[in-house]
Amino acid sequence: MAAHTDYLLHLADNALILGQRNAEWCGHGPILEEDLALANNSLDLIGQARLLYQHVAALRKDGRTTEDHLAYFRDVPDFRNYTLLELPHSTALAPTSAGNRDYAVTIARNFLFSALMVLVWESLRASKDAQLAAIAAKSLKETQYHLRHARDWLLRLGDGTADSHARMQAAMDHLMPYTQEFWTSSEMETSAVEAGVGVDTNTLRAAWDEVIDDTLAQATLKRSTTDGYVSTGKLCVHSEHLGFVLAEMQSLARAHPEAVW
Amino acid sequence: MQAASLPDGPIEQKLPSDPHHAVWTLLESVADPEIPVVSLREMGILRAVREGADGLEVVITPTYSGCPAMSQMEDDVMAALAQAGVPARVVTLLAPAWSTDWMTPEARDKLRAYGIAPPQATSCASQGLNVVQFATKRVASYARPAVACPQCGSENTTETSHFGSTACKALYRCLNCMEPFDYFKPY
């Protein structure tokens, strides 16, 4: 059961943290249409996270766990999202928030993650966990649209001006190593796969590679190397950036616990 | 389990012979909070009225995972039932997943008259199933369909933005009459 709910939390935390990061563009988008696009994208992701958190709460049946408890009252070592999703929108290593946001990083991250999740949700429609299968069927439709949006911009920026091309390539070079975490094994994933609940991402790797290679070629970008440090966010060991994301996301709920609208 | 118990397709108006005809008729007055010209049944959101273990159940299904109008819809259904003195509870089921294919033909006409281009008949529900192997096809399935302008009917239109004023819409512009319009995205 713990591995089952941990797996659901991994999926939910991925959606919530990327939803929160994308929402940082709200009111600051490079153009009005992209402001709307990222806000809509976040709405879908946070909606997916809510469905998964509600499912975890229903499975635990401990009378304490609620979706709000899972989103707002857990700390960094409890979160199971990929490190890729918590990084700032910047290719520089140091900054933690606003400052020098680069839309190329936002697009690269959404592209790399959506390309994976289209495959994951497709597979999870056959999960033995019927509620997860139902959530997957809904999320797939939304994620396909996110992939289309990110891919369109990747092509436009990669095959655009010299400046947009260079920034898009830098963003890919910066983020690509973090995708190694998609393929590493973890106990919660292995158990979920054995139980027929989860999907082994390694079975999706060839299809993911094909989407990435095909798109990068069309965008006139080079595929970056993915060696070096392997991130461990899904094992609850995060970068220094997640704490800042949670601080902003959770402070209101923690200042006014049990508050209702 | 629950997946099999919900109808998969548009819900027709119920005949007087239906055991819950009165409830269906009552709920016909509950409109989509953001598109007030169509009822929840016409949108395919209202899925069933049935006898549950604890009495009458009204089953609805969410549209987009994060649609902020969902709780409003539930409240509106509860209010309509309470006002009519019908004791029932609202149940939200996810499967089968809502699809714009479930919109009734009347709903499509009403959307068009309201200024929103209705979704193309084939939703993206089938796209994930059809496309399995090739990367280009996986995303190329989003090749944009011709969307007719709800004002002048011209198919000479262009997409301004993938996303619009609500989660379910994209922004288009007619190159014939030059009017901008919302397109209800296939889901």
Write the layout of secondary structure elements.
The complex is a heterodimer of chains A (261) and B (187).
Chain A: H1 2-23, H2 32-60, H3 67-72, H4 103-124, H5 130-158, H6 162-175, H7 187-194, H8 205-218, H9 242-255
Helix pairs in contact in A: 1-2, 1-7, 2-5, 4-5, 4-6, 4-8
Chain B: H1 2-5, H2 21-27, H3 40-43, E1 46-52, E2 55-60, H4 69-83, E3 88-92, H5 105-114, E4 116-117, H6 127-130, H7 135-140, E5 157-161, E6 169-174, E7 180-184
Parallel strand pairs in B: 2-3, 4-7
Antiparallel strand pairs in B: 1-2, 5-6, 6-7
Multimeric organization: heterodimer
Tally of individual helices of chain B: 7
Order of helices and strands of chain B: HHHEEHEHEHHEEE
Fourth-level CATH superfamily of the largest domain in chain B:
Fe-S cluster assembly (FSCA)
Strand content of chain B: 15-25%
The main β sheet of chain B shows up as: 4 strands, mixed
* Number of distinct helices of chain A: 9
The chain-level structural class of chain A is mainly alpha
Walk across the major sheet of chain B and give the strand order. Answer: 4-7-6-5
- Strand fraction of chain A equals under 5%
Q: Using the alpha-carbon principal axes, give the shape of chain A.
A: globular
> What is the largest interface, and how many residues per chain?
A-B, 42 and 38 residues
What is the CATH C-level name of the largest domain in chain B? Alpha Beta
- Overall number of strands of chain A: 0
Number of separate strands of chain B: 7
Instruction: Supply Rg of chain A.
Output: 18 Å
Task: Write up this protein.
The complex is a heterodimer of chains A (261) and B (187). Chain A has 261 residues and is mainly α. Helices cover 61% and strands 0% of the residues of chain A. Chain A has one domain: Ferritin, core subunit, four-helix bundle (Ferritin, Up-down Bundle), CATH 1.20.1260.10. In chain A, helix 4 crosses helix 6 (162-175). The longest helix of chain A has 29 residues, at 32-60. The radius of gyration of chain A is 18 Å and the shape is globular. Chain A starts with a helix and ends in a 6-residue tail after the last helix. The model of chain A has no long low-confidence stretch (mean pLDDT 94). With 187 residues, chain B is of the alpha/beta class. Chain B has seven helices and seven strands; from the N terminus they run αααββαβαβααβββ. In chain B, 37% of the residues are buried. The chains are: A mainly alpha (261), B alpha/beta (187). The A-B interface holds A 33, 36-37, 39-48, 50-51, 118, 122, 130-131, 133-135, 137-142, 144-145, 147-149, 151-152, 207, 210-215 and B 1-3, 62, 64-68, 93-98, 123-125, 127-128, 133-136, 138-139, 141-142, 160-165, 167, 171, 185, 187.
